[in-house]
Amino acid sequence: MRFQTFALLAATALSAPSIAATVAPAAPISSLVRQVAIPHTMFRLANGLTVIVHEDHKAPVVAVSTWYNVGSKDEPAGKTGFAHLFEHLMFNGSENLPGDYFKFLQQIGATDENGTTSNDRTNYFETVPTGALERTLFMESDRMGHLLGAVSQGVLDNQRSVVQNEKRQGDSQPGGLAQYALYENLFPAGHPYHHTVIGSMADLDAASLADVKQWFRDKYGPNNAVLVIAGDTTAAKARPLVERYFGAIARGPVNRPAMATVPTLAAPKTVVLKDALAFTIISRNWAVPGLLSPQMAALDVGGSILGGLASSRLDKALVREEKIAIQVSANYSPLQRAGIFTTQIVAKPGTDPAKVAARANAIMADLIARGPTADEVQRAVTSEVAGRIRGLEQVGGFGGKAVSLAEGQTFAGTSNFYQRTLAAYAAVTPASVRAAMQQWLNRPALTISISPGQREAYAETKVTKPAAPKAEEAPPKPTRALPPLGRLTALQWPAIVHTSLANGIPIVYAQRSAVPLTQLALSFDAGNAADAPDQRGLAAMTVGLLEEGTTSRSSQQLAEAEERLGANIGTGNTADRSTVTLSALSPNLAPSLDLLTDIVQHPAFAPAEIDRVRVQALTGIAQTLKDPTRVAQRVLPVALYGPSHPYGGPAGGDPAAIAKFTRDDLAGFKQRWLRPDTAKIFVVSDRPLADIKPLLEARFGGWAAPSAARGVKAFTAPPARPAASRILLVDRPGAPQSTIAGGQLLPVDPRGDTVPLQAANDVLGGSFLSRLNMDLRESKGWSYGVGSSAQLLANGVAFTVSAPVQADRTGDSLIALTGDIGDFLGTKGVSEEELSLTIANSVNQLPGQFETGAALLAAMMRTDLLGRPDDFYVGLAARYRAQTAAGLDRAIRGAIAPNGFTWVVVGDAAKVRPQLEKTGLPIEVVEAK
């Protein structure tokens, strides 16, 4: 299991006799590999732009992904962070698209729109309705060929502040400074990977307008780019458009991305850090070959076997059996010129971290010396191939088919690199894993130890008086006209079929045939709201323990069985529901369902597993209390709903209660809440219902409800909304950022017509172009991102605001937030321009929102939770088009009281409180528990 943010784990209870522990064999890897295909056409313009077109007509959307072969490794000394800074500048308008680029993306209903920078490349991507493809290509060509006239000193200064707040936000996280120790010590000075992508504050401070413009001229020519168009189009349609809009862009200088070798440390090296942690983290790191190495697959599989799979050797020994670690991981991160292999252990509090690390090193040494088993290799490779099959469902985004094609062409010079990679995984053997690990991981390692304590002083940006503004040249007049939109196809919603099993469990089914995949959710009417006030965290712990062993399989055996099948089984809780989910390769559906059945109906609740999960949960909460953002998430629900309300529990649960949970508590929760008469099964599959229902009937149709009484949630009236706003201040000394979280309960029926309220919130704080985000991020540069939402629960609606801000602007930011909200709820409501943009975005993005089976499954579950009709989303377009500015104003002004907020501020109280006093709001210092 890869290292991740601590979350509360859970458990379930005893049931009927176990089904047989044997599982039918999985489909062979070779047959799975054959299902991964991305047919495409490639051509190159005279100016060097490489274009790849892939057809996928399952939905009326097209992904456009532009990759530039430049990343942080290509930055010269003194200019770290430039690649990422320039990525931000590309979203601030071009010569023929003035203003914020997101405005034009929202007009066409783009989804999955973003840009990212890595060590090796910078990419920009969006998925758009088919009828918006021509306009999207115009937009991408305008920022490729017509950008510099729109890049001003003011734009640079603003985005520099935004990037520096992004850096603060990451750096302020516990352990956030470890990345600098990793790159600076693993790669020598002068090596292209010696510095991080985000760069240093000093270099960002020093970036000049001339510097960034030259960066564009040198790196952003069409001959240094790959354009991928994937989705509901053809090469015959796409090519003339690409030639029309990109063909006249001049070729840029020949780009020579930085070359690099794989360095070896002269001797083992240890870096010791202190930070706001509840435990000690020890990682070992090696520079190894990168993405293009023939040993890439073997190193990756080796990392999975060591610490990447749920069944990994480190997990099995240190977490499950010896219980001396809370979490472990091992992973291989391939860069273009080199890679990084990392092992990481989170020592259990109370153990000697050095001894835990020594034990981990011994396990790794044994794997290197002896090599893995054939079964371990098969499980790791099956998991990898299954993940790639799941990725075929999405045309764009962060990991869809466009990414596979662009990555191969950019880094390997071939768009079919994904096939070569899959073949390499399929060819991995125990011997090849052993050889690769012996060659590269017996070399000296960089060890980074992070233990609880005071972190070193933070290197802040220079505090200087702003220079007098210079008179800037007027932006050039547009020379290219924005093309009109084509016909935009309405949302294509599948037929939703309702049926039931013999015992009455309802089934809600939809068919999606794009990939051989079945997505299933077994949803129970439970969730965190089922916790008694003195047992907060019981639902989460119960549900989480479902995967930690059954009456016939240990947690280790369950993990191994899932991996052999390429299945993903997960558990989770929301406020209103507890769910067990399955993502199965349809050829392996029957045996995958066998595992799901065992997990749901026959949990063992073994005492040793309960104790282990309890320690993980308590340690996770202890760490949460050191993270400003997560502290605010724990404090706000209790403040809004009150501690006795079903929705009033702290996120993660109450540590005092969790410490006392017994096996009887867990089994009792299972008997009352996780049972067939509280269950509903949601399915999205490429297989017809006629195939699916008999499989479910055989496994769940005979499941009988226990004799124990079914649980009942005790919803009472929440506290009255305060007549005046207030501030709850949580002290976190030394925090470089503050987290502001505000909220209030709304007099709104979650099952009623919430479209006007949601649309009004899009204008206020629900989108990138919202009032709150544009003010604090784009205008003032005090935050990396601000947002608000109306959270619809089954029995209530809460309006919340979230704003991580730089520490020295905490008071100013809260004043700005309250002012913006007050203005919006007063005399400065929704403008006609804002209404038009919000409605266009809401309507046009509907086809892209439900491209994948997982998105459709989530929508089906939400529709059920809120009592909406099956075709709710089909009718949304007409309902959005019927909205007026006055209607949106009435909805949000009738729901939100401008002076009814509870504001939670988490930050360095010594620095923050004097700022907050300027707001005039009463301040109460509270402790997060």
Give the N-terminus to C-terminus distance in angstroms. Answer: 28 Å
Order of adjacent strands in the largest pleated sheet? 1-2-6-3-5-4
Poorly predicted residue ranges: 1-21, 463-471
Principal-axes geometry comes out as: globular
Q: How would you describe this structure to a colleague?
A:
Helix content is 39%, strand content 17%. With 929 residues, the protein is of the alpha+beta class. It has a six-stranded mixed sheet with strand order 1-2-6-3-5-4, with helices on both faces. Strands 12-13-17-14-16-15 form a six-stranded mixed sheet, sandwiched between helices. The protein starts with 28 loop residues before the first helix and ends with a strand.
Q: Which features would summarize this protein structure in a list?
A:
6-stranded mixed sheet; 929 residues; 33 helices
Reconstruct the topology from this structure:
Blueprint: H1 29-33, E1 41-44, E2 50-55, E3 61-68, H2 82-89, H3 101-107, E4 111-117, E5 122-129, H4 133-145, H5 153-171, H6 178-186, H7 201-206, H8 209-219, E6 225-231, H9 235-246, E7 269-275, E8 281-288, H10 296-308, H11 313-321, E9 325-334, E10 339-347, H12 353-370, H13 374-391, H14 401-412, H15 417-426, H16 430-440, E11 446-452, E12 497-500, E13 506-511, E14 517-524, H17 538-544, H18 555-565, E15 568-573, E16 578-585, H19 589-601, H20 607-624, H21 628-641, H22 655-658, H23 663-673, E17 679-685, H24 689-700, E18 726-731, E19 737-745, H25 755-766, H26 771-779, E20 787-793, E21 796-806, H27 810-825, H28 832-844, H29 846-849, H30 853-865, H31 876-881, H32 885-895, E22 902-907, H33 909-917, E23 923-925
Helix pairs in contact: 2-5, 3-28, 4-9, 10-13, 10-16, 11-12, 12-16, 13-18, 17-23, 19-24, 25-28, 25-32, 26-27, 27-33
